[in-house]
Structure of Type II toxin-antitoxin system RelE/ParE family toxin:
Amino acid sequence: MEYQLKFHPAAAKDLFKLAKNSKALGQIIIDNHLPKIVGDPLNAGRRKKGDLSHIFGYNFNYQRVSYRILYQVENDTVRIIALGVHDVAYKKAKKRREQ
């Protein structure tokens, strides 16, 4: 099944900020991590538990820092909810889950 990639408006800003701070990190996310998620979203990340049970989390490390890409899968769409450093990404996802 082919999935379509969409961004929560604030998640697009998250990606822009990460890429602005480190062009290499932004490029790695766009070239490597997002295609992995879109290619097989149900297996690329882990389904979260508790109040974020509708969200999947994809983990990766860059320069000894742990990053998360949090996303939802709805029908044939992968919607990126939040990107960022571990704790910050989860806080953003909790705020955005209602939007």
Summary: The chain has one domain: 4-93.
